Amino acid sequence: MSDGGAPRPGAGRAPVIAVDGPAAAGKGTLARRLAAALGLPHLDTGLLYRAVGRRMLDRGADPRDAVLAEAEARALTEADLGRPDLRGPEVDMAASAVAAIPAVRAALLDWQRGFARGRGAVLDGRDIGTVVFPDATVKLYVDASPEERARRRLLELRARGVAADPDQVLSEVLARDAQDRNRAAAPLRPAPDAIVLDTTGLDADAAFARALAIVRERLRSAG
Questions:
Q1: Looking at CB atoms within 10 Å, which of 27, 47, 147, 188 has the fewest?
Q2: 94 is in an annotated binding site
Q3: Keyword annotations for this protein (predicted)?
Q4: Is 139 flagged in the annotation as binding?
Q5: Residue 53 among known ligand-binding residues
Q6: CATH class (in words) of the domain with range 16-222
Q7: Is 185 annotated among the ligand-binding residues?
């Protein structure tokens, strides 16, 4: 794919693209497509917290237990990120709970930074542009209305054969938002210099086209 004049990732300092936003805003799909278009590696940082949350659930432990959660974060392996059971409401809430623990975030911070060091990357999560890479080349904050995000989550669950109640899914989205935005450690919020992309009225292709145009323009400016 032509880059339309944007600098190659290998030209100068390797670019880091931060894609943040709340649950079910579409940031994961968007980040993967941006990475492919730009020839950069992609990291879904939410998987790190999901994997820690899953390990806590496997132990029958309370995900809010800071001591155990830090130990599980430090014991995390790449194999944990490939587990097939890292999605679903129970893991969603466990991931949000462990992500609120400062020691867990500290344990995973170097892992995330090391992933992009030297080669650049597109990373999606909730604090990439504010904490993990505050000097990221481009920062996007991808958002959508809670109702639209609940609709997308419902479609995703049904596609996997999971029965779900629309009101319950919306309630879970709102609860996750409140937990992420009100936590003391790295609360979910746009970085001051992030570009906010509201995808409420956009399908995946339209959101990608708009995001790619923003990223290319920022890369040209940075170059």
A1: 147
A2: no
A3: ATP-binding, Cytoplasm, Kinase, Nucleotide-binding, Transferase
A4: no
A5: no
A6: alpha beta
A7: no
